Amino acid sequence: MIWKKISEPKKGELTNLEKIIVNSLIMHLQNDYGEMIKKQLEYLLLKKRINYNKDCVTELYPEKFGIMPKEILFERNEEFRLAEIKFELNNTKHSCVIYMSLGQLFDMKIKPKPIKTEGELNFKIITIEIEKNLSQNVY
């Protein structure tokens, strides 16, 4: 097995594709959960991007642990899959799985890894599956 050196999280913005995916998620969340995700993103300033051969993962972290107000955290605080979004990007089908942990957005895994292109992204949602239980731990 080949181990990959993974860098520390760095301050930065979401990529254009990540922004489109998160905005699509926000639009499809029920109740106040979409607004909670928007507010969480204001605190999740550190990004760690891990590129593998066939997929890529973006992890999101606050600058300091525990600074996020409790009112914007989901009641379900175990790690769980929040959503799977299947989409077409520039005529190639992809999927993005979004995870939550400790009541906050944690990471996004996109597969296959998108090819970097210049210019406008041709993005089209195919399906969005959102976890129904967002307010109660399962374990």
Task: Give a brief description.
With 139 residues, the chain is an alpha+beta fold. It has two helices and seven strands; from the N terminus they run βααββββββ.
Instruction: Give, in spatial order, the strands making up the sheet with the most strands.
Output: 1-2-3-6-5-4-7
Percentage beta strand:
35-45%
State the shape.
Answer: globular
Biggest β-sheet strands, sense, barrel: 7 strands, antiparallel
Low-confidence stretches: none
Determine Rg (CA atoms, Å). 15 Å
Tally of extended strands?
7
Give an overview of the whole structure.
With 139 residues, this protein is an alpha+beta fold. It is built from 2 helices and 7 strands. The protein has helices at 16-28, 33-43; strands at residues 10-11, 46-51, 56-61, 80-89, 92-101, 104-111, 123-130. The chain is globular.
Q: What are the SSEs and their pairings?
A:
Elements lengths: L9 E2 L4 H13 L4 H11 L2 E6 L4 E6 L18 E10 L2 E10 L2 E8 L11 E8 L9
Antiparallel strand pairs: 1-2, 2-3, 3-6, 4-5, 4-7, 5-6
Helix pairs in contact: 1-2
List the main descriptive attributes of the protein structure presented here.
alpha+beta; 2 helices; 7 strands; 139 residues
